[in-house]
Structures are given as C-alpha cells and as structure tokens.
Amino acid sequence: MKNVIVILGPTASGKTSLSVELAKEINGEIISADSMQIYKHMNIGTAKPDKIERGGIPHHLIDEAEPDEEFSVARFKELALEYIENIIKRGKVPIVAGGTGLYINSLIYNINFSETICDWEFREKLKKEAETYGNEYLYEKLKKVDPEAASKIHCNNLKRVIRALEVYEYTKLPISFHQKMSRNEPPSYNFIIFGLKMNREKLYDRINKRVDLMLQKGLIDEVKKLMEMGYDRNLVSMQGLGYKEIISHLEGEISLEEAIYILKRDTRRYAKRQMTWFRRIEGVHWIEVDGYKNSQEILENIKTILQHGNFFCKI
To answer: What is the pTM of this model?
Structure first.
C-alpha cells in the first residue's frame, strides 16, 4: 500500500512552513486540506501561503474555486485522491496539510458523503428558516434526528447542519450512519499522520498576533474588494473567519475594535474545536512543539519516525 503523509494541527500551529520544509527533504508535493484556502481572491484572511512561503513546492487544492461556488467535502475528497495518485505516479510523496478535520477524515477513513443527494430547494427552505428563527432552530432539529452528528457540528456551521438534515430528509437515516457504513471499505493508501500541538496560551498568543498581521497586510482592503466584486456576505466563503467580522464592521454594525476582538476570540475558539476533533483521530504521531528548540528539530523527528517505520522504502 502506498504511503501518504498527513500534517494536521490547529490554526497558527505552523503546519504550512513545516510541510514545505518536509516536502523539500523528501521530494514531496503538498495537498491543502483547508476549506477556506480553496477559494480564489481570499488570501490574507485565509492565511494562504504566498509564492515565497511555498518555497518552490507545488501546492494543490489552493485557489480551486470562486468564492460563490459550492465546494463540498465530497468534491475535496475526489480531487485530493486524483492529486495523490498523480503525485505518486510522478515518483513524489503526497503531503496532505491542513486544519479542516472533515476534509482530513474523508481521506483517512474513506468516508462516503452521499454526494448524489442534492436538493437546492430544500436547502433554500432551511436557509430561510435559519434567517427567520436563527441557526439554533435548525440545530435543534438536527439534534432530534441525529444527535451524534449534532455533537460534532457547531450550531453556527449552517452548511453542515443543512447538509445533515438534507441527508436525513431523503434517506430517513442520519448522516452519521452513512459515514459509519462507508468506513467498512478501507482506504487505498497508508496515511502516516503527524499532529502539531502546543501550550494553549502560546497558541492563543500566536493566533492574536496572526490576526494583527492580517490587518497589517490589508485584510480590510481584501474584504472590500470581494464586496465590490459582488460576493454576498451570506456566501459560505464570506462567512469564514476574518471575513464575516470585517464585513460587519464595513456595514457599520460594529466598530473595528469590536471586529478585531471578535475575530481573535472566535479564532481561538475554532482552534480549540479543531484540537477536540483531531484527538478523535487514531494513530496520530503527536508532536509537542514546545519541546523543540526550532522547526528543524521537529523536521528531524518526523524523518526519524518515517525511517524507523521503513516508510521511505515503501514510498
């Protein structure tokens, strides 16, 4: 079975730079597992690596879709598997790097998301219900029909709440059941998973500084440009962290100071949810970032694990 390396971790933990350095060492190419970096024109708020940060390493599943395009986890899985196969055929090593847990799970557990079920009218109906009664109204509906899925989905993640309700509406079975059944078929690759974690206060400090840097780089102008291009604030992409807060400020709903406070707070909360998700994944080689002097030491540790497992021989 061919090997695929996965580097996961919460936002601002250093996944991008580490994956680039690893790719240089083992002749790899990177497949992004980030549900926001797939969108074009959205660079600063998604912390998308620029040309210099990519270090000459090919990156895939970045700038894949327009901000108003539907991009599902099923689509991610389909494209990611195509890239993995092509990278291997060219004699290189696929490195999946990102922080979107559902994207990563779709690969390592070979999850089938019942992509054939699609009813736009039903989705619009649920969206209107959320607008009228609030997101929690739909979330309570989901808790009644699929409490297991609800426990893993945040009530404000409207896209996933609606998707779970849609699957139940047409199959009369919870989406969590479909996902479990799909796991009976093992994945076609051996996923070697490395996870980054660090002291919570240190991570939160990095998050706060990253938000400040985004603003210095021109996040507000980026959001203004997206709005001028006609992208509606209710789009899934425009509801992402860094965008919805700045839109609220630009629309005069909150001050810039409030927007920054909310963005930092919600990003910290998101990082906490990411770690909760990642801890459920089996077989992760956890790397305590605080225990290393620099990224080179972390890189050497990863290479040692790969060599001891004879993964290089199999790749």
So the answer is: 0.81
